[in-house]
Amino acid sequence: MNLFIAAFGFGLVSMSVIAIAAVGFTMQFGITNMINLAYGGVMISSAYVAYYLNKAGVSVWIGMAAGALFGSVFSFLLNRFIYAPFMRKGTAHLGMVIVSLAVSLMIANLLLPIVGYYPVSYQEDTGGLIHLGPIALTRDQFIVIGVAIVLMLAIHALLTYTRLGKAMRATAANPTLARNCGIPTNRVIDAVWLITGALCGMAGVVAALNAGTFVIDNGAAFLITILAAAVLGGAGQPYGAMIGAVIIGLMTELSAAAWSPQYKEVVAFGVLVLVMVLRPQGLLAKRGALAAAG
Amino acid sequence: MLVATEIHRHFEGLHAVDGVSIEVPAGQITGLIGPNGAGKSTFLAVLAGTLPATSGSITFDGRGITRLPAYARARLGLVRTFQLPSEFAQLTVLENLLVAAPNNRGDSLFGALRGKGYWIKDERRLVEQARALLKRFGMSAKESDYAGTMSGGQKRLIEIMRALMLGPRVLLLDEPMSGVHPKIIEEIQRYLQDLRKEGLTILMVEHELHMVERLCDSVVVMAQGKVIGSGTMASLRRQPEIVDAYLVG
Amino acid sequence: MNTFYAANLLIYAGIDIIACLALNLQFGVSGIVNFSFIVFQSVGAYTAAVLSMPPDTANFGFQHYIGGYELPFPIPWIGAVVAGGLLAVPVGLVVLRKLRSDYQAIALLVLSVIANTVITNADKFLGGAGGISLVPSPVGDRITPRTEPYEYFYIGITAVCVAVAFLVVNRVVNSPYGRSLRAMREREIAAAAIGKNPVQLKMTIFIVGGMIAGLSGAILVGYINVWGPTVWLYPETIILFAAIIVGGRGNNIGAILGALLVPVGFEEVTRLINSNGTLANFGPPGLLSALQWVAIGLLILGFLWFRPQGVRPEPRRVFEGGPE
């Protein structure tokens, strides 16, 4: 029983990390219709940026901010110089998936000679275990949960109360109409990449922190979990991604306790498959997997 | 021939089709008119099977087809064209027609694996059939051009010819004449009327009211997802609500 | 150039050509973005291996795998073909039905990663992370492997397989059936509106492509006598996609061209680098291999931008007797 309570605690941390990542990913898809397979690559790059800063003596939390900044700029440039031009050229959805796959391959392999094969980790005092009822987590893990909650609230506030947020929602629902209503969709899209890129970068650092040690391959593996959460919640739906993150986070940790930690991604994948077979549009359905436009 | 009963089509909170029941009589050309956004194209798509009906039923020649997917309806002889250009861009004009023709022995995996000798006769026969159609509509010169490079009106024509290659029993046409050259429009009209004499049933969404008047035996008027009237154009003109809702002149 | 080098080149070329023909059938002609292609080649390799190997208790039982029926050539290869087709059935049924095409692509990509993870961790199933080795060479008891006569023999059977694969793919693509496939690729909804059943078409091609992919795996494993998860990571599929994009989509000549330019080129460059002392030690370990992958990515982006139709574009079909 204790094992499962502990797993539940880990699930809380897990879902926090996944939520930060999945919300960014799903917003990229929802507003720009881009399944950004390079998301994992940007995440891990940001994790390494924080790592090098950390090696130079900077605290991990400043590193996290740096990672967010890096992720933001990187994602913005990625869209400006690669994704947007291809989209303007009229590349179909499918073609864009191939483009993002090629980009992810390039990021991973450009990173490899710089950072090498060996796993690394952040150097910092994680603090002792803090007990909250039956759950025992380190101070860092509680901070991660806290960061996730703050970010989710911030995104909610952005989408509900700000003009930019409303413009984003309008662009997501109907880009042509939005443009015709005078919304500067290009600038909205730029803002989306900057904001979701920051989420991506932050998620990378937080995921690396949570994992303990990390290596380049972690990027691709984590992408599967993010995909599962995003699709489960309904592609393009930020609140759906949050719900998806909760479910996937819990499921993967509980299954790791029940069976084996090596199969965490397999569980996520299993969920992904089930969703696609039973309810491809996800939980908070709207536009999504069934759309006729291929 | 084609009977739709209480068709509803809801999507994302929008009631595009809100309880439409019509009967398309066999061997006649029926027009489907109405202002923009009335749900005509959506209704056509539901009839064709491209979109599933949220509720309601459809029978085709007495046979229930509500659950049948689009390709199966096409094989039964219920064929549609599209409002937006839907040609196969990287196939030539001739290929666009050929691909629609059923009864080609080469159009299956095992047929293809048996090699050219097995299906070349069918192919030649269909090429002749397609070429005859192309000639009739004045597109013979374009047979080897990519369909994607054709003009809007030509793409429209290609779609109609493609539908005709199937030997349909009911044609669902979605604004077939828009963008087509007036001379060709006449040719299409003549062809459709000939086919009607041979027993073809047509349901046609059209905006050009003169054409509707000339071609259609009867007309159904839709607005806001519902049928607001049906009958001949003359009788409809006498109904003030219809005139107010839609008819101008 | 000695025989072994030439044989190696020709046999790898043959395998890559077969793989590219299959992927072109799925992706180039029918529009199925099969990002899990390498899994099908792999299932063929594993099947051929466990069908031809002795039970895993042999050789002091240092590896664990299912099967071990010691069947003679060509049965393991036939088994590989069947396995490739069989795997396509459940995968296709799950992925190819209701989803839009980019979701399908993602699902298949994820499948590829997960399959690799599962096989790596399931130790007793197919050798686990270490893979399986000492896979017997086909007809190795009659002709001694690693000799010139054997190399010629293997080139011969590879060539036969290439011919068979080409015949099948050619007949499918250049037929009315191929035309229906291309129509479905162009505009699936319109294809359904003229009576084509997209699900049936996609499933059929997925299975046929899977069978041919399985064959390529059998040929490869029979030649290199080992197989393991590190050989079939998901980027291997990307190399083949690059080949199709570079060579030319939707036509078999383009697929062959792409196979010769990209995977063969990639392998040759790798060999060249490794055989040259100075080059092999250039920079940190793995730098050149990583740069090769970057080159693949650039190749894909470059061709998609400047020449999406590939080096040899899909030919326009002209029928005899038309207007002048």
Could you write a compact summary of the structure shown?
The complex is a heterotrimer of chains A (294), B (249) and C (324). Chain B is α/β, with parallel strands linked by helices and 249 residues long. Chain B has helices spanning 40-48, 70-76, 93-100, 109-113, 116-136, 152-165, 182-197, 209-215, 233-237, 240-245, and strands spanning 2-11, 14-24, 29-33, 55-60, 63-64, 78-80, 170-174, 201-205, 218-223, 226-231.
Which keywords apply here?
heterotrimer; A: mainly alpha; ABC transporter involved in vitamin B12 uptake, BtuC; 11 helices; 74% helix; 4% strand; disordered C terminus; C: 324 residues; mainly alpha
Describe this structure in words.
The complex is a heterotrimer of chains A (294), B (249) and C (324). Chain A has a single domain (2-117, 155-290), classed as ABC transporter involved in vitamin B12 uptake, BtuC. Helices cover 74% and strands 4% of the residues of chain A. Chain A has helices spanning 2-32, 39-55, 60-88, 93-115, 139-161, 163-173, 175-180, 185-211, 218-233, 238-258, 264-278; strands at residues 120-121, 129-132, 135-138, 213-214. In chain A, the strands form 2 sheets. In chain A, strands 1-4 form a two-stranded antiparallel ribbon. Chain A has a two-stranded antiparallel ribbon with strand order 2-3. In chain A, β2 and β3 (135-138) form a beta hairpin. In chain A, α1 packs antiparallel against α10, α2 crosses α8 (185-211) and α5 crosses α6 (163-173). The longest helix of chain A is centred in the N-terminal third of the chain and has 31 residues, at 2-32. The termini of chain A are far apart. Residues 287-294 of chain A have low confidence and may be disordered. With 249 residues, chain B is an alpha/beta fold. Chain B has 10 helices and 10 strands. In chain B, α3 packs parallel to α6 (152-165). The mean pLDDT of chain B is 88. With 324 residues, chain C is mostly helical. Helix content of chain C is 68%, strand content 0%. Chain C is globular, with a radius of gyration of 20 Å. The model of chain C has no long low-confidence stretch (mean pLDDT 89). The chains are: A mainly alpha (294), B alpha/beta (249), C mainly alpha (324). Chains A and C meet through α3, α4, α9 and α11 of A and α4, α10 and α14 of C.
